[in-house]
């Protein structure tokens, strides 16, 4: 029912994440199947020492914002051996939104994504950003198999984000029927409120 409300623009509440873990460390999430999340499926935020492995994540391919795994302002993360079908990015690395991410200054760093496969008709296998105002660095993406997708790897950000993206290594990616293998672009040009700084430019 709530999907009908969403498409009709009458949903009065924010859609929830299927699993959100905050301010935690030494986390292992493995050997589970998650289905039909209303929003981002797995969202560790302000966490460290996180392993997410052997997961199956399935969302309707036309369901917006149903990212598979979104480490957000996290350090020391390993995402491996997962299969994901989504209406958005299979994996998206984030670190806060505009002035709020800048003031928190909690980067995402030391993240490895390997042996992930799946499909997303409108988005990317791995997305970096666009909410990356706390900074993103030291990311390694390897041994992915992306099929029937809009993009393989996408780095996206916007005016007003500030922050930085640096030291990204991408190796051994297999793509089948992917429209744009490597895409650099702006995000959705959205902001949490009117307090964002138009002079805050991201550094890549």
Radius of gyration from CA coordinates: 16 Å
Q: Termini distance?
A: 41 Å
> How many strands appear in the DSSP assignment?
12
- Uncertain residue segments: none
Derived structural class = mainly beta
How are helices and strands ordered from N to C? HEEEEEEEEHEEEE
The amount of helix comes to under 10%
Oligomerization category of the chains in this entry: single chain
What overall geometry do the principal axes of the alpha carbons give? Answer: globular
| Strand-residue proportion | over 45%
Classified by CATH, the class is Mainly Beta
With helices defined by DSSP (H or I, 4 residues minimum), what is the helix count?
2
Task: Tell me what the CATH architecture is.
Answer: 3 Solenoid
């Amino acid at each position: 029912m709530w999907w009908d409300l969403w498409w009709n623009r009458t949903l009065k509440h924010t859609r929830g994440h299927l699993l959100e873990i905050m301010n935690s460390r030494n986390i292992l999430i493995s050997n589970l199947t998650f289905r039909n999340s209303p929003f981002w499926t797995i969202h560790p935020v302000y966490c460290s020492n996180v392993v997410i492995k052997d997961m199956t994540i399935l969302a309707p391919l036309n369901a917006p914002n149903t990212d598979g795994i979104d480490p957000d302002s996290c350090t020391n993360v390993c995402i491996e051996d997962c299969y994901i079908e989504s209406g958005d990015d299979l994996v998206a690395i984030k670190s806060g939104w505009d002035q709020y991410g800048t003031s928190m200054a909690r980067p995402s760093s030391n993240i490895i994504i390997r042996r992930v496969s799946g499909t997303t008709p409108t988005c990317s296998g791995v997305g970096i950003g666009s909410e990356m105002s706390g900074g993103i660095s030291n990311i390694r993406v390897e041994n992915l198999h992306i099929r029937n997708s809009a993009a393989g790897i996408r780095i996206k950000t916007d005016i007003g984000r500030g922050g930085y993206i640096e030291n990204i290594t991408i190796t051994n990616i297999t793509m089948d029927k992917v429209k744009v293998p490597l895409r650099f672009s702006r995000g959705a040009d959205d902001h949490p409120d009117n307090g964002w700084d138009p002079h805050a430019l991201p550094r890549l």
